[in-house]
Amino acid sequence: MQKSIFMYYISGPVTNLKNMKMDYLLKRNEKIAKILESKDREVYLPQRDTNQSQTPRKIFTDNMEAIKKSDGVIVILSDTRGIYLETGYAKAHGKKIIGLQVEETRALGAMVRNFLDHVVSNVDELVILLNVLEKKTKSKKNANNN
């Protein structure tokens, strides 16, 4: 199978939520990344791919650079502030924003729904959506090259 030319940045919770432990959240983020990687996609998962022993400023800078290099951002729709900062930065750089609903996702208001390019309910739907989006992108690139 050919390696994907698409790279996605995963923006997910890494701090404790009301009823969820940090360890669970980190493992869930990693599981989502591994599923996408098993489908031949390149994934940038900050908790894993950014050196966390750096200064907070350097971590921030590295994460923003990764977003700029990505083809899109997959936002694990949780109730933590960091995902909103990363999502806004990605949107400002013209990246596709895909919201992935998880157990703690609250109802999405109209503003959030309109901010996100797509919303999926699970990882299987995410993979299907990425297949469609990537196929469209490849077709567009091929048409422009002809």
> In one word, what is the shape?
globular
By oligomeric state, this entry counts as single chain
Q: CATH class, anyone?
A: Alpha Beta
**Helix-strand category:** alpha/beta
Q: Mean pLDDT across all residues, rounded? A: 89
The CATH topology assignment is: Rossmann fold
* Spans where pLDDT lies below 50 across 5 or more residues: none
Question: What would a concise description of this structure say?
Answer:
The protein has six helices and five strands. It has helices at 22-38, 46-49, 56-69, 81-92, 110-115, 123-145; strands at residues 7-11, 42-44, 72-77, 96-101, 118-120.
Describe this structure in words.
The protein has 146 residues and is an alpha/beta fold. The protein has one domain: Rossmann fold. 52% of the residues lie in helices and 16% in strands. It contains six helices and five strands. The protein has a five-stranded parallel beta sheet with strand order 2-1-3-4-5, with helices on both faces. α1 links the parallel β1 and β2.
